[in-house]
């Protein structure tokens, strides 16, 4: 048996069954999520790491500058989901010996651009030889202890919401990886969504500040997977009521006779929107906090007792989507 027979999510469980855990870590998270430890009274250090690998993450037509920026955004997004302000990043970079110097310059410019966009810096890292380009980023941030947003705190009655319209990245992947056609404006917006994703840092900090959120994570692995991860971590079930879908995704699904809901749930990912559970009595405060920083908050469902994720008609939303180290999606 090899790692590809098991898949990323089971491997994460296996690793944490083997490692000794730090009893003072606050989020109880680990691989594929941020971790936090107390710095001083009232403040915690939040850290996360994310890896970008050429053969799985370099999309057709994507420049090295865009690749570098996206590697930063992936790290920023997980801090945003915890309500932490970035302090800085470290990157270990693996390069093939024949990698062009000009391409390296573009890659580093992308790292710098991404960090600057979110008010932080790449502080250093390491450089080594590899068979393909690898960007292993680590990010560090700070948050108020009482404002830290875990993924495991959702309670029955909480409202489930996301910070943006969904479906565009699913369309972008269809266009870039499966050669689907789309009109120029639809193609441009969909491809831009996967080339230049946005981390919802301002929204995350605003939500943490208002104290309305009980659980939070980003949906970089796809909406269906993320909903199931939040439900499992919190020991609850989630009923999905309505999806806020971008008009371009609606048009694309209709044009190609695709199931729009299935497309949005299972074929997206890398949207970097925040998925949050909000105290029902503080919904208006959460909406206002996000609006004040130029964002939006869309209610998509409700937290219930039980386990799993379900549509309004009672059908189950499976934890299917992209998974590293697995030959098939699922």
Explain this structure.
The chain has 330 residues and is an alpha+beta fold. The chain folds into two domains: 3-147, PurM-like, N-terminal domain (60s Ribosomal Protein L30, Chain: A, 2-Layer Sandwich), CATH 3.30.1330.10; 159-311, Phosphoribosyl-aminoimidazole Synthetase, Chain A, domain 2 (Alpha-Beta Complex), CATH 3.90.650.10. The chain has helices spanning 8-18, 54-57, 64-82, 101-117, 168-178, 184-195, 201-210, 223-234, 247-255, 260-266, 283-292, and strands at residues 35-40, 43-53, 85-95, 122-129, 134-144, 159-162, 213-218, 237-240, 274-278, 298-304, 308-311. The strands form two sheets. Strands 7-9-6-10-8-11 form a six-stranded mixed β-sheet, with helices on both faces. A five-stranded mixed β-sheet has the order 1-2-5-3-4. Helix 3 runs parallel beside helix 7. The chain starts with 7 loop residues before the first helix and ends in a 19-residue tail after the last strand. Mean pLDDT is 89; it is low at 324-330.
């Amino acid at each position: 048996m090899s790692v590809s027979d098991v898949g990323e999510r089971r491997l994460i469980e296996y690793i944490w069954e083997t490692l000794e855990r730090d009893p003072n870590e606050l989020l109880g998270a680990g691989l594929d999520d941020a971790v936090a430890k107390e710095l001083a009274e009232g403040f915690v250090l939040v850290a996360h790491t994310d890896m970008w690998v050429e053969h799985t993450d370099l999309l057709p037509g994507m420049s090295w500058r865009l690749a570098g920026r996206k590697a930063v955004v992936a790290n920023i997004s997980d801090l945003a989901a915890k309500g932490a302000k970035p302090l800085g990043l470290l990157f270990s970079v693996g390069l093939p010996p024949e990698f062009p110097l000009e391409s390296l310059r573009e890659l580093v410019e992308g790292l710098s651009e991404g960090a600057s966009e979110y008010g932080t810096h790449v502080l250093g890292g390491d450089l080594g030889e590899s068979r393909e380009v690898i960007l292993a980023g680590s990010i560090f941030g700070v948050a108020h202890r009482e404002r830290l947003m875990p993924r495991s705190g959702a309670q029955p009655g909480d409202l489930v919401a996301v910070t943006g319209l969904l479906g565009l990245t699913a369309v972008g992947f269809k266009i870039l990886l499966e050669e689907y056609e789309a009109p120029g404006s639809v193609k441009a917006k969909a491809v831009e969504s996967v080339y230049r994703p946005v981390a919802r840092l301002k929204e995350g900090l605003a939500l943490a500040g208002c104290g309305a959120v009980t659980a939070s994570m980003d949906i970089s692995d796809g909406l269906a997977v993320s909903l199931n991860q939040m439900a499992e971590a919190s020991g609850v079930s989630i009923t999905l009521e309505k999806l806020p879908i971008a008009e371009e995704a609606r048009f694309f699904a209709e044009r190609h006779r695709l199931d729009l809901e299935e497309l949005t749930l299972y074929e997206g990912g890398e949207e970097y929107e925040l998925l949050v559970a909000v105290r029902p009595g503080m919904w208006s405060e959460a909406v206002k906090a996000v609006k004040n920083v130029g964002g939006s908050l869309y209610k998509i469902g409700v937290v219930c007792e039980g386990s799993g994720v379900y549509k309004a008609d009672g059908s189950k939303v499976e934890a299917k989507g992209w998974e590293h180290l697995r030959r098939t999606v699922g």
